[in-house]
């Protein structure tokens, strides 16, 4: 089963961050994007995914064009949908969070491709991302003639109490390790920690989904932590049915590494890209994963010693 899952993941590797339209957003950021003014009535702009992307919703009944970094037509948001200009240099830059892709010609005639059938669009915009603190703006063009603008600021985000989150997760992990004599307690921790991880990954994917990219793409971009959470739940259920202590230990170690340590930026940065309870989910993954790794290893060692 693991081999099959690995094969599927490899086959879908092309759905990387650039192809997933925003799935490369970090789990947390140390800055906050604030939208202060949108000059076009009926147009709403807000930061999403922790400020990694801007979202524009056009309820004005008019055609609104987002102008790019070189003043070219970049996105066209009509009452009936969204088009993207694939000759726009900004279109190339917006394909990933880093904005390193280069291409296009700002002076060329637009090459419009329909992106969505709803008047809602999200995009990476380096004008409204990352510190230092500053003001930013994105120009608009309404009905091909009337200028508009979106203005905002970038502000530093206060860091959470990082040391306390780490300490709490590690202490909780020690407490879980101390439950190694209680089989059903270990089962409960595995199901809870794995289930919370799956819920957090799914919630983050839902929040990152827009009309231009389906939920499936966002889930595929988070495939490995999602499979890790599912695997820990499965290991817990398996432990309830038979002695698979070593499997539980390995699953716990994977959860601690692939979710707890890998996503630990939530302990350091103030703005979360996913659900507001994401810190608790990562802390549970770290504590539960470490505790399961230790308790499962102890249980396996004692069973192996008894069999000898």
From TrEMBL:
Coiled-coil zones: none
Keywords: Membrane, Signal, Transmembrane, Transmembrane helix
Transmembrane segments: 163-179, 186-207, 219-239, 246-267, 279-301
UniProt signal peptide: 1-20
Entry keyword annotation includes Transmembrane: yes
Protein name per the record: Integral membrane protein
Organism: Dactylosporangium sucinum
């Amino acid at each position: 089963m693991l081999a099959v899952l690995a094969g599927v993941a490899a086959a879908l590797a092309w759905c990387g961050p650039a192809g997933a339209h925003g799935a490369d957003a970090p789990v947390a950021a140390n800055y906050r994007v604030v939208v202060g003014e949108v000059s076009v009535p009926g147009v709403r702009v807000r930061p999403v995914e922790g400020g990694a992307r801007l979202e524009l919703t056009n309820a004005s009944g008019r055609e609104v064009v987002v102008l790019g970094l070189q003043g070219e037509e970049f996105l066209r948001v009509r009452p009936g949908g969204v088009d993207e200009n694939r000759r726009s240099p900004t279109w190339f830059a917006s394909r990933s969070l880093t904005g390193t892709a280069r291409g296009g010609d700002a002076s060329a005639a637009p090459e419009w491709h329909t992106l969505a059938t709803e008047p809602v669009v999200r995009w990476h915009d380096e004008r409204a991302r990352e510190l230092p603190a500053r003001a930013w703006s994105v120009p608009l063009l309404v009905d091909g003639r009337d200028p508009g603008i979106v203005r905002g600021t970038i502000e530093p985000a206060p860091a959470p109490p990082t040391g306390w989150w780490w300490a709490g997760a590690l202490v909780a992990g020690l407490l879980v390790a101390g439950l190694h004599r209680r089989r059903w307690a270990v089962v409960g921790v595995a199901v809870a920690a794995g289930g919370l991880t799956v819920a957090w990954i799914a919630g983050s994917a839902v929040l990152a989904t827009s009309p231009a990219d389906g939920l499936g793409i966002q889930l595929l971009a988070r495939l490995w932590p999602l499979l890790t959470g599912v695997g820990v739940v499965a290991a817990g259920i398996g432990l309830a049915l038979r002695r698979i202590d070593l499997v539980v230990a390995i699953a716990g170690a994977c959860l601690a590494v692939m979710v707890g340590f890998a996503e630990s930026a939530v302990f350091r940065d103030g703005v979360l890209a996913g659900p507001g309870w994401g810190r608790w989910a990562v802390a549970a993954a770290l504590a539960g994963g470490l505790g399961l790794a230790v308790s499962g290893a102890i249980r396996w060692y004692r069973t192996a010693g008894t069999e000898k």
